[in-house]
Amino acid sequence: MTPILETKNLVKVYKVGKVETPALRGVSLSVQKGDFVAIMGQSGCGKSTLLHLLGGLLSPTSGEILIDGEDISNISDAKRTDIRRRKIGFVFQRFNLFPTLTADGNLRLAERIHIGNGKGNPEKRREILRVLKLENKMNSKPLELSGGEQQRVALARAVINSPAIILADEPTGNLDTQNSEIVLDMFAELNQRFGQTIIMITHNPEAARHCGRIIQMRDGHIVGPED
Ligand SMILES: Nc1ncnc2c1ncn2[C@@H]1O[C@H](COP(=O)(O)OP(=O)(O)O)[C@@H](O)[C@H]1O
Ligand SMILES: [Mg+2]
Question: 178 C-alpha to center of ligand 2: Å?
């Protein structure tokens, strides 16, 4: 079966002035549809760089990235943006919600970015908010929500356009234990009930336990399932 996501010898070197920082030193990875993968490793080892490359937010110095068999490493920024909008849902440590929009409004905005103008699909928004136990928070703005609720709205926003892959960069990094647990349960439920493919960076071994597979990174390399 074609992997939903694959990298071949991925290298990323950041250049700032004359300073070069090698962040990824040859990462080869294969993820199948329905996988729930945790990426772990010390700060600075290249986790976020890898995630940003996987999602088409950055282009690699060398190597290949294939999403659903489609090579995104050597294409124009415009084309990469298009693939990202169609196939990827991002969840970040900072929830990045629009403060002046309600939960439902934040989802509608994501729909608009995806499909252009129009009303989107109110039933689908309601269903996703229901699955994430936010049905009574539809009309609340971010500041009226707890951290865990805000992150669940961000998760709803990431899945509203049915992305092939969700990429999450320390999604529980700003949450207390209880809210982390709720958010992780939601990730697990999306994975189990809907076969959602998820790749999640985390520092938390507890969080990684929700995942079927753990990838350990060190110094720009994948060093295997265990460190
Ligand atoms: N935009 C950037 N410009 C220059 N160096 C960067 C940039 N982003 C990350 N780096 C460097 O690349 C390395 C890997 O960073 P990162 O991927 O953020 O690691 P992690 O997410 O595992 O903490 C670090 O040495 C970091 O300082
Ligand atoms: Mg990081």
Answer: 22
